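Fig. S4 source data, part A: sequence.
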Amino acid sequence: MSSGGLKRAKRLIRREVLSERDAATTIVRQESGQRVGERFLALPEVQRARTIMLFWSFGSEVPTRPLIDRLDERGVAVALPRIEGADLVPVRFVPGDPTTLTSFGAEEPVGGIRLDPETIDVVGVPGVAFDRRGRRIGYGGGYYDRFLRGIRAFTVGLAFELQVLDEELPGGSFDVPVDAIVTEDGTIRPST
């Protein structure tokens, strides 16, 4: 598939899945999001982790603020991404630390200590769509693919079941799959 064809295919999937996700009621997203969070926290890799990077959810994404709070209460070091130029930088975050609203709607830390990506045990990864092989389609900036390419952390897509498609997603050599996907209905481990 040509580069232009790949972009068009991803754009179409992005539009369809976001439309369906946005159509879910707030109550359904909250209840399903709570189940996603419980499954994420129960993962053995998360149970063992000392440092976990999450993302600040926005719009109709799986809500991550409760996860950030619960991990902090457990004594886990939490990192949030901050975009610096073309890079995604992990920054230590404690609930209550100042954040700023990004142009796309998420919050990111204003200050905070930059973490060495090698110290991160688990990364909770956002996405618009995932397939059962761990491929993902994000929002189109490539930030997570660039970031994930250089780390050894266990990566987990946090998604609603409607975001996991049975058909294989289109992708290129630059797309980095996740190690697991957690939804309200279960955990998918593509390598097993």
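Fig. S4 source data, part B ends here. The two ends are 28 Å apart (CA to CA).
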